[in-house]
Specification:
heterodimer, A: mainly alpha, B: mainly alpha, Alpha-Beta Plaits, three-stranded antiparallel beta sheet
Amino acid sequence: MNWIELILSFFVLLGGLFMLIGSIGLARLPDFYMRLHAPTKATTLGVGSLLIASMLFFSIKNSMFSIHEILITIFLFITAPVSAHMMAKAALHVDTDTLERTQGVEAHKAATAGGNPPAKADLVNKQKGSEN
Amino acid sequence: MDAKPRFRLVPMPVQSALLFVVWLLMNNTLAVGHIFLAATLAFTIPLLVNGLQNPQPTVRKPLLALRYFLLVLMDIVIANMQVAVLILGPLKKMQPGFVAVPLDINQNLPITLLASTVSLTPGTVSCDVSEDKRWLYIHALNLVDEQALIHSIKTRYEAPLKEIFGC
């Protein structure tokens, strides 16, 4: 039982660590769009590790496969990017302040405008220019 | 959907199978009663909701789709590490930025998958899709080389998706 406990504690700690990093990111990063990265990424792996641990623990404790945690993982992987996308879209809509050194101003303007990028010609030219 | 919808006993076989499996997973059991209930649900719900479907492109290459899934799974793990390092590292050095990625795929489902993949993988979050579905706007946490980022998204994620859905 000892080595299983080791593996379990490893996954639980790893999960906790990534959740902590995600929360630190949420508090520490300077602007809205950057803050968006922390919960979509660090948290998925954090919850993933915790669920692996849970799967192992209950499979061994009840000596029967417990795999319904997979569902949580799948739901999380579906909802995390969608909610992040919706928040980013809303932020673009209300034109949330970005960090001053944010690059890609023309892309940001185009995205804020919503429809066709007004600076599309610039973007296309830029891409053509880089390909040549 | 056809102009004249004809009645089919199992209109959505994939969704039926999915519903069956998910029901059993949710209950975490293989008891006969639950198998029966799952079969009933998997049979009746598609009959009821079949008319509400939007036509979606179908998966043409399931093996490639599986490979894509594993690739994304691996990239998620790598992405987590990278973002963790970025978050804990010096913030002054970070160069966030917006990028417009030109899209070659134009159907809703592949674009949704691409946008979700972009959100889950290294340092990028998808923000918006232009109304004509030709541009995907993404925000990168640390934008070093815009063209390299666009190139990697297009070759690593978009090209396989394009092949999987054959569009």
